[in-house]
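Spend some time on this chain, tokens included, and walk me through the fold:

. . .
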Amino acid sequence: MRASSAVLTAALALGCEDGSRRAFAPGDAALPDVTDASESDAPTGIGLACSDEREKVEAVTGCRGGQRCYTSARGFPGGYCTQDCLQRPCPGDAYCVSEGSTRYCVRRCTDDAECRGAEGYVCVRPSPTLPRGCLPDPSPTGRADGGACVVDAALPRGAFVGDGESASRERMDSDTEAEPIVAVSPTDGTVTVAYLGRDSRTNLFSGLSRRRADGVWTMDGVLTDREFNNAINPVIAYDRAGTLWASYLALTLDRPGPSVRVARSTDHGVRWEDGRSVAPDGRCAGGCDPPWLAIGAAPGDPSRDRLRVVYLTRSTRRDAWVTAQHSDDGGAHWSEPTNLDGVGLVGRIDVEPAAPTVAVDAVGAAHVAWVMQSRANTRSTLGDIHNVVRYAVDRDGSGRFEGPTMVSAAGESVVAQPPQVAVVGGAAQVVYVAGTPDGRWSVRLASREAGGAWRVRTVNDDAPCATHGFAALAGDTARSTVHVVWLDNRNGDGQVAYAQCPVDAAQPCGPNERVSGARFALSTTSDLTRWHGSHAAAALAADGTLWLAWSDTRSGGPAVYVARAR
């Protein structure tokens, strides 16, 4: 998912330092090992498989007396025998960790061979201050590793040539760049890329690069906000006059919460006017996640541009909402917030919204998609049968949204990466990622005519046993098609893949092509030294040129690269 304000100070690690989603309390390091003394060296059963009831977070059967079974609904595939260590110390072959208000025992280990590798368990430190333990792999990747999954033939090179132009690697003030957004000016064709960067002091910032007419990238752009210390996770878009707009999350240490902001630039991001707050004061008291921006004609007045922003609002009581607002006067004033969805149930499991995005169609209707993610499963970001994709639309510009409707199929196991939206010829298109928590993911494209049912296709044309993710799309009305870009590792190393999909959902997507010849290590981790962000980017220029952007680690650390095709 896109980074939430609650974890930005931890350099986007989703939970603890190794990229897992478990939030281990600092006090764990102080737990004395002597309290974990055991009366016997015999195995105690901590970490063994147990009855795995997928609808339950805990089960009381299948483990030894005094133990309980943490099921896959909690993020432990095949079940995991453990015990509460809040009142009772762990035995000698285990140690105690905390997850929120819960404390439980984890089996000690020295290498992966001691863990249930076939079920996705590895020997890792849940935090730098804790010992190694058998836990689900915090950053799994699917592999083409046998049988029907072997893919020997490399993806063909199609309309894309070269290995992608470097759009950020040569920056002197940053060692990590990811979460790219690409936009093309409708007036002079300037290509601008925005991304989340990190400097040598581990501070996060919004970087921008511009492609000059001679094809050289200028990589020194920074989105700054004079009221806030940090402006991060930019999403950029041009209006019809060629003004560049950015939405972002603003943070500063002397304010109680973050702010959702919008700013504009008339010179492709070289200089920025003062940003304006979108969310009313107090709206982000419990935190807000970074916003997503789209610009299109105002419904009923095609001569005027309307700015649309969606973001995730959190309260101090653990509530969360997908929130939408719009402005018709260049960001000077914003509509009252509209809540599209909030915390609810899928089956018997609590779910909460994550990763909302928005797109605007030719008549100004706003289309929003987001993921509903399991709260019970600490690894639900990697895929969970209770995760779903939802969608809503504001057709008349009133701020009243139809829906939400469910885009993904029940039990499809959606991955919590942003489901991007495009509208082509009146048909809504939503690209998302689905698969199992071991990293075997597929890119899915859902299509729906106005008032019709959603129909879903798989975009990758190989067996669903590798990692395909970090997807983006661009709608192409002239060709009546959808362009999709993603990262995958079907041939072993990471690569950038692309396919065209007809708007007609009854037709399959086209053959997959290789965008870049450069190979890299594909990872699902949140470790910023190996991170790809949560999405790629795609945009169509006025002359029909398709621009793609992504983050890969070919030169050691994450950096943004760009490719184009007609």
Residues 501 and 508 are 7 Å apart (CA to CA). The longest strand covers residues 301-314. The mean pLDDT is 89. The two ends are 31 Å apart (CA to CA).
